[in-house]
Structures are given as C-alpha cells and as structure tokens.
Amino acid sequence: QLLRLLFAENLSPLKKRMSGKACSSRTIGLVVVTAICAILCVLLIAAASAGRPVIEGLIVNGIMDQRSPIEPDSAAYDRWFTSDYENANPQRFSVYVFNVTNPSEVLQGAKPKLQQVGPVVYRYRFHHFNVSWSEDQERIQSMRFENYEYLPEYSEIDPYTTELTVLNIPMVAVKASLDRVNPLAFDSAASKAGQPLFMKINIHSYIWGFESPFLQFVNAYITPLATTRFQLQSNDTTEDGCFTRLRGQYDEYYTGKNNSDYLNWYTQWHGKTDLGVWGNEEANTVKGHDGTGFSINIPEGKNLTLFVDTLNRDLQLWYNETEEIEGIEARRYALAEENFFNVTQGNEGYPLLAPNGLVNMTLPMVLSSGNPVPIFMSLPLFYLSHESLFQAIDFLPPYDHHDRLLHNTELHVEPTSGFTVKVNKRIQVNVQITPSVLVFPNITTTFFPVAWFERSSQISEPLAEKLKNNLLKSKQIAHYCPYVLGPIAAFFFVLTIIFGVMAFMSNQKEVADEVEMQSAAKN
User: Fold this and answer.
1) What span, in angstroms and rounded, lies between the C-alpha atoms of 428 and 2?
2) Distance, CA of 278 to CA of 276 (rounded, Å)
C-alpha cells in the first residue's frame, strides 16, 4: 500500500518502462530496498506483538518439563522423587528441647521455667517408593521414605550424652485415656508404678524413641498396649519399616499435566481424601501444595495453600514481601495468624478447643493411635498465639517470641516457575498437663512446651544460576521484546519512507527525462 501511494501517479509509466525500456539500476535498487525495509518493518511489528506470548508459552513448557513428574528419568521426576537430586543443597532438621529447671515447684503449682537447649542438627533425606501413575498421568501415587542423619559438626550439644529433665509424655497420655473412664485409675497406676511426671533422659532417646517404664507397667498390670515404646519423631531406616509406619497407605499428588495450577498438589494423604477429624467438609478435604513448589505464574498478591502433614490440615501462606535469594527475586510467604484462630473467631472448620495459636491434635491422635494424647501444636515460643500461653511459661533465657525470622514458617518462592528457593518450616510440640486427684493435685493446667523443630533448605548456587540463565533471562526477553523490537520496527518504517521517497523521485526524474527525449525526437 505504501508503494502504491508513492507511485500512484506514475505506476503505469513505470510498468510500461519496466516492460519495455529498462529502468535505471538506481531506481530498481531503491524499489528493492524499500520493499525489503517494508517487509522487515511488518515482520518486526508482528514479532513485537506476538513475540511475548510466544516466548511466555515456551517458558511455561520449559517449566513444566522441569516441574511435572510425568516421566521417570527426567529432571522433574528426580527433583520430586528425592531430596538428593543433582546439585541439591542438603536439607537440615534442627531440634530444640525444653529442659525443666524447676520440676518440684511445677508439681506444687508454680510456673514452669524452661531452658531451651539446642539445636541438635540432622540431615534430612527423603525419597518416594512404590511409585505409580494414573492412566492419564495427571496423578502420581507413592510412599515417602524419610531419614535423619545426625550432624555433630552443626550441633551445639551431643544428644547422646546430654540429659535433660523433660515431661513424661507417656504418663500424660495414659492419664488422658484413663480419665475418660475413672480419674482415680490413673492415680492408682501412677502410685504403683513409681514413675515421675518429669523424668531425666538424653535428648536422642526422647526424640527418636525409648522404652517407657510407665507404659511397660500399664501393659503388664492394667491393659495390653500395642507398644511400650514412645517417640516424638519417626526415622525411617528401611522401606519395609516405612511401609509399616504408613500402614501401607499411599499419598497422591497431581502432576500438573493439563493444569499447572495443581503442580505438587495433594489429592490424598495416607490413603485419605477426607481427613475426618475437623469440623466441616471443607476443612476435612485433603488439599494444598507439598511445599517443594507451587503453581506457575503466581499472580501478585495471591496467597498459597500448603498441606502440612504434621498438622493433618492445610494452611494459608500470605505474601509479605520480595527478597533476593542467590540472585533470584523471590516472594516471601509466611503463615498468617488467622490459621490458628479458634472456632469463636469464625474458624468453624477447626474446633480447636484451645486458645488462639494452638492446633488441637487430640482427635487425630485418637484416630492414628487410639489414644487421646493431649498434644497441641503451635509455632515456636507461641509465636502468633494468645499472649496468655507465653506468659504461663518462664523461658530461659528470656526470648522475644515476636521474632518472625526465628519462629514463623516461611517459604520463598520464585513466582514465574513456582520453585521454592528457600524453606524454613517450624513447629512446636506442646502437651496439656492437668492435675490428678491424688498424685499431683496442685499442678496448674498448662499447655506445656516440649520441643520445637525446624526443617530448612535453600536452593544451591548451581541450581540458582541455572534458574536465572534458563528461566529468568527468557522472562526478561519476553518482557522487553516489545520495547526492543518496537523501536527497530519504527526505524525500518522510517527507512521505508526515505527509500520510498527516493525511489519515487528517481522514477519521476526518469519519466521526465524520457518525455523530454521523446519531445526532442519529434521536433
């Protein structure tokens, strides 16, 4: 159209001349250059308009190749399958235990004075086994093997030799069970067994398991028990043992195929789609990402849903701010206070029957072990909890329990890929102690902190570089594509005009010269 405008008046003479007497090489050259500039201008405009969505589509496909565990022996499968995938940083599991410094006074109703001891640091490893896919590859089932290896070089104390005075949780569990039948039954058993409410034990045994003398007494003289062993944390050493621990029940996740919003999203947990422990259908539905990654292209301001297996429920992670992790711009998400509101504040799905900040695990414990162990989970040092919980304990040394960097659960997520680039998951175990009729009648009802745990990891430098090079640079190209190609297209548009005008002027001159020559020939 541009050429027709430029040559409209002389198009016929030009055609005639081109079919007869040849145009000058200068005019032909200018026309060719003008046409080339016009074509390049059109192509650049098209690329500027369509390039960004095309590149973004390629980015999404590339992310899915790295994220969706559809095929074995792929990078995505390796990252999902094991914590020890190529170039992965080690994941650490840190344990802090509370030493009771005034057990005799607590029995008489005094406020507990608890000394935080730790950390004891372990390397956390996991891998999936008995893996299978649905026929359409949209879901994947597996069992998760989890192992902890002691790291003395990172630990503040030796868990094998350090003895602490701690709460006798097996005794509290038996009390809770017998109190439902006859409160005096516990007093009778406790008196005969001669076991204290607070006992001395090394940290390793308290966390990873020990034979409880009180449970042995109950098993021998009161009622048969499934086990007389107690542990705060399980540690898989064989897949057969893990299979037994999980009772042969599988977890199931969406692979993200055909819907990237559900990458690493739980659909079943321990064989259940309905947890059956909370207050309504929504709360009982198994849902949420597993924390290793989230959906692709997370909208700004969107909160994330995380399924927390230790709490048997999903929690909301709220966006706080953007931080740089290993040169990657990541969004920091943290647990919100609203997750731990009790039912009186609109949290009908979770009848916690406890002050804000606690997750009542009594019913899940009944369903898993048959015993109403009064365990209440919280964030460390009752962060985001009702102030009365913190004030009921003297923590030694005094701590600032409002420090989110030390006590909240936080995940840093790169929003385009959905990769989790830094993790700090924290949880505290508390046990509700109540007075008995005879053995310890003066004790104050207290949500008693026992220990808290942190699982932490961060993307390695090689993986961060790979993410920046392969993903973030492509993202920058897509973003700046219109801003770069647009001016170049404008430049070729200007060249089209210039060369078009020059071709027009050259053609006009040749036409005039030809007319003048024809006129002179007639004369």
Assistant:
1) 74
2) 6
